[in-house]
Design a protein that fits this description.
9 helices; two-stranded parallel ribbon; globular; 37% helix
Length: 279
């Protein structure tokens, strides 16, 4: 599967899940009622009401959303924590969200970037889409993790067109590629830990958190049925609806489109920025 097809599929599955949260409202003018006459109110449906929600990614998405972000992030060179490349990438992301009408800012001492799309509801529920913005010490990090960042940015572009009932947080974490031991077995995950801490202190109730890592690069040794791997927490410890259910939504969307390319695993050992959300 080439990069273009993989990118389209990733956007399809992400937006398909999010689309269930989208609502459209049509203004309705009610004419005053008189004793002799009552005017019938005519409701004009919004043209997008006829849209197949499974097709939001293909309707509003463009491959350039992915390609532009990948090329730009790659152009900054090494994005390891504290480097000039990371600072340039962070500014690029914040400027991007400014064009979408969302406020983006640094969160935490390690300067993760977080943008918020406010919903119209008055409760504290929220969804998080995240990817680590930092890269390795010795490369520009296309797989680590420009691809994941590009997916989050493209998702934001499409969802920004809609009025949602709950808040959506688009998070770009720092500290994923920093290791705390010489054997490089323990990741720092500073950024996602700080983001989770702030969400908790702000009283935000995260009902779903999706973390995108190592996307949009070709691995010849990867079986077709494992082109996308979704990892979830253990069902026995946390229940189906808090774990595998979220992954099954993604899988169902792909199957609906005829693509059986995703594998779901219960995995608590692979370290990435979903870990702090599980804690």
């Amino acid at each position: 599967m080439d990069r273009r097809k993989a990118a389209s599929l990733v956007l399809l599955l992400v937006i398909g899940v999010s689309a269930t949260l989208v609502f459209y409202f049509n203004s309705q003018q009610v004419s005053p009622q008189h004793e002799e006459e009552q005017t019938e109110t005519k409701i004009e449906p919004h043209p997008l009401n006829a849209l197949d929600w499974w097709d939001i990614a293909t309707t509003f998405g463009r491959i350039t959303l992915i390609n532009d972000a990948l090329v730009k992030l790659y152009s900054f060179g090494i994005r390891y924590d504290g480097t000039e490349g990371y600072t340039k990438a962070a500014k690029y992301v914040m400027d991007y969200f400014d064009t979408l009408g969302m406020e983006a800012s640094y969160w935490g001492d390690h300067e993760s970037v977080v943008a918020v799309q406010r919903g119209y509801g008055n409760d504290s529920r929220a969804i998080v889409f995240g990817a680590h913005l930092d890269g390795p010490e010795d490369s520009a990090g296309v797989d680590q993790n420009a691809g994941g960042c590009a997916v989050v940015m493209a998702t934001a572009y499409m969802l920004s067109r809609f009025r949602l009932p709950i808040d959506v947080y688009y998070c770009f974490y720092s500290g994923n590629m920093v290791f705390l031991d010489s054997e490089k077995t323990l990741r720092a995950l500073w950024g996602s830990k700080e983001v989770v801490s702030k969400l908790v202190s702000d009283g935000v109730k995260v009902i779903a958190a999706y973390n995108f890592d190592e996307l949009l690069f070709y691995d010849k040794g990867q079986p077709q049925s494992k082109r996308l791997i979704a990892q979830c927490n253990t069902i026995s410890a946390h229940g189906y609806h808090q774990t595998k259910y979220l992954a099954d939504l993604l899988y169902a969307i792909l199957l609906h489109k005829g693509f059986d390319i995703m594998t779901i695993t219960e995995d608590t050992h692979w370290q990435s920025d979903h870990w702090p959300f599980w804690d």
